[in-house]
Amino acid sequence: MKSLLSLLSLFVAITFVTPLYALDTAAQTDMQILYAKVKADKKLLVAQNMNLTDAESQAFWPIYDSYQKDLDAINKRTLNLIKSYADAWNSQTIDDTVAKKLLNEMVSIKGAEANLYKTYAPKLTAVLPAMKAARYLQIENKIRAVVHYELAAQIPLVP
Description:
This protein is mainly alpha-helical. The chain has five helices and no strands.
């Protein structure tokens, strides 16, 4: 798990904090490779920690894939928010209006994350024992905590 968390930390540092438009084509290709590796490693981590039966596995993985797709949409919103903040920070144009807009989007994203759990908890408990459903969401929560920690460590406070 620690190796995945280290890889996630690197991915967060590169993906969310370094604007993609600043990367050359080779670096963007490297980012895509790293992203694919993180996704594969994450899926392996989940598989190793879920101890699913064959029947559970057959029902779980489509839900997992759907969850990841919805999570990707939230991650894209987060990336856009960070880019907007970085642009405002770099151009020194953060005022109350900009701060309020950024704050509203951050609150909206946090709500979307909470809704993701609310949406998927019943789907998971419909196909898995509650303990395994809880374990999966706990794994996701731990990974998100690492991502949020890395972002918080690298993004400066509003002036």
